[in-house]
Amino acid sequence: MSASVVARLLADPAAAAEVEDWTAVFAAARGESLTGSLAFRLKGLKLPDKVGRLLADARGAAEAGRTQALWEAEMARRALAPLGLPIVLLKGTAYVAAGLAAGTGRSIGDLDILVPRTALPEVERALLAAGWEWVKEDSYDDLYYRRWMHELPPLIHSTRDRMIDVHHTILPLTARPKPDAEALVADSVALGNGLHILCPEDMVVHAAGHLFADGDLAGGLRNLWDIDRLLREFEGAEGFWQRLHDRAARHGLLSAVHRAGRLANDLYGTPVPEGWRVRDGADPLFKSRLLARDGWGHPTRRALRFGFYLRSHWLRMPPLMLARHLWRKARRRSEPA
Amino acid sequence: MAGPRFVADPPEAARTVALETLTAFYHAPSGTTHILAPPAPQILEALAGRPGEADEVLARIGERFELASDDAPAAIAARLAELEAAGLVRRA
Amino acid sequence: MRRLELRIGPVSFRIGSAWAGPLDQLECLYAGYPAAEAPCDFTVRLEPARPWRRFLRPSVAIAGDYWLPDTAPLPLSLGLLAAEMGMNLQMALGQRRYLLLHAAAVEREGRALLITGPSGAGKSTLAALLGERGWRFMGDEFALVGLDDGLLHAFPRAVSLKNEALALFPDVAPERLGPLLEGTPKGTIRHLRPNDEAVARMDQPASPALILFPRFDRELEPAVRPVGAAEVFVRLTQASTNYVALAEPGFAALTRLVTNVPGRAIDYATGEQAVALVERLWEEVR
Q: What are the pLDDT digits (tens) for B31-88?
């Protein structure tokens, strides 16, 4: 169960002295996109030369990724500055732009931003004018995104080949919790150049909501590590836990935030309030899903993963709509290209 | 006629290597490499940390660099638009 | 998962497979190569594309530490090719210690000749041919440029040769040849193991001395043209899978290479013409 070794090393770097099969650790870490984070956690430890070299490579890769992510944010800023809107960075790009511990070594994919829903048309226009274009999908997908999802259909930049996801809230409109999107924007923190990040409590709520209220937990170990880093960074502030509770309740994501806290505490030793550490019957299933990767980097627990895949669709849609959606997808797959 | 003001990143943000008449230009903030032909490298040098519009750029370059074009201001404006799209200059 | 570990130059691979066949073929092809250096740099996995495809019309999906989403599975008969492609993917997407150029390389007297060009331009065949004519073969798929030392480091993988090209190698010992693989994207191919010298000296780097841009066509007259540094630079960035990921050290290594090492384009119609042109150019750049 090599994903659990990776989790252990992140939580307790000194355990690196006991590792015998580093090839397996690297395979599992790469499978979970955690090599950069792991490499920074293990920096400075006395390790075999070759292990040290591979970890240094991982840090270099994370640095290069960080540069690219910040540049994408800057180019989006330049394209959207004339609109005079708050542009809120989300996820990995936000962590590195704000210099948070959660950004250290983090692998970053697309640029995710949050804008007010009313601003979507002008944001779309400005991005298209500045060289982004639609990732070509059929008209059903386009309609699906615009009506039901929490983001515009994906855009990709024509020369830089990097994607941007423009969100107007943090969960699909069809999901049961209804986060307060206006509050997310109104209470965002300015970085000084026109870009914003979510306030600390909202950042945690978003991370937990993204992990447990939307999606099938793929890459979950990394997202949970983000939550560990965020909680450790923010919890020193006076009244943080109460504010977190209030914000989570306001966004309808209290149970997701609690589950995130319990699992982070279990896997990473994250400090959470005593009252949060209750027994929940579903936690072991979530934990198993998060750790479902072996020493070959291969995803394990196929049935469990499929169960969470079904759950992710269930979370996003009312049952009747889900049935229609899956039917259309199945028909499309069986049609000749 | 005043046009938009541009600025380029300071010299420390780039690495340049001459390759015969062209310049290999590594832009550290973006991690991208550009192959630039004159007067692009000269324009970037003129705007490095010093905002200016097309006419000012022309004046700064003209001191040290001979421009072959009859319609030099239009040529400079065109190069500036290209450099902006490439992310090497931004509106000041 | 059955496993095989393999070291090629500075890179060690751990290759896992649901089937024994491809690993047996790989082990034969790389007989005499040194032991892997733990921990392995990369893991490659050959897996059934769907669980039932392990036995029913077996289909090999190429997976590993680094992967691309749309890689089509291969039939089990081409499992050896899948393993080679898997290793290529790990290098292309994950290699960070060396600047990778899509080029072949051979060495003589401590100096290296780099042969670039798109797939099918004949660089693999030319490099393999030179490797049998007194040059030390350093690799045909990837040329590894040291980021600190600017030297070329050998990565001598088995060379994939089209069936017709094999006619150029009549004296090669049969145990150096891999199985005949039919129905590959390049048609029918066989792999050729580099000779004993190439394997024995794989840890010896060389100074790059000439960058060649070959063009092969039966209609061509043999010809030589210089290639300017700017053109060499652009063509090499297009031929590098990790130039962008390496950021500034990549820029430094590549500009250093193109400003110190001359480039030449050659046209040729036969292997013999190519070898003659190379020998002539080599004298010129000494």
A: 999 999 999 999 999 999 999 999 899 888 876 666 666 678 888 999 999 999 899 9
A216: buried, middle or exposed (CB in 10 Å: 19+, 13-18, 0-12)?
Answer: middle
Strand order in the sheet with B32-36: B14-19, B22-27, B32-36
User: What tens digit of pLDDT does each residue of C222-263 get?
Assistant: 999 999 999 999 999 998 999 999 999 999 999 999 999 999
CA dihedral A120, A142, A32, A65 (to 10 degrees): -50
pTM of the model: 0.93
Is C208 in contact with C261 (CB distance < 8 Å)?
yes
Residue A60 touches partner C, C-beta closer than 8 Å: yes
Question: Which among B29, B85, B90 has CB closest to A71?
Answer: B29
* 3-class state of residue B56 by DSSP: helix
Task: Collect all residues of chain A within an 8 Å Cβ-Cβ radius of residue B28.
Answer: 67
3-state secondary structure at position C214: strand
Residues A197, A189 contacting (CB under 8 angstroms): yes
How far CA C254 is from CA of A204, B19, B27, B33, C92, in Å, comes to: 43, 12, 15, 11, 17
The helix/strand/coil state of B17 is strand
B20 vs C228: CB contact, 8 Å cut-off? yes
Say what angle helices A254-268 and A220-234 make with each other, to 10 degrees: 90
Burial class (CB in 10 A: 0-12, 13-18, 19+), A18: exposed
Angle of helix A200-212 relative to helix A240-250, nearest 10 degrees, comes to 50
Which one of C1, C39, C66 has the shortest CB-CB distance to A51?
A: C39
Paired with C161 in beta bridges are: C190
Specify whether the CB–CB gap between C22 and C47 falls below 8 A. Answer: no
CA atoms within 13 A on the CB side of C244: 13
Rounded to 10 degrees, what is the CA torsion of C146, C152, C158, C163? 130
C-alpha to C-alpha distance for A210 and A220, rounded to whole angstroms: 10
Q: Which of A270-279, B66-75, C60-69, C201-210 has the lowest mean pLDDT?
A: B66-75
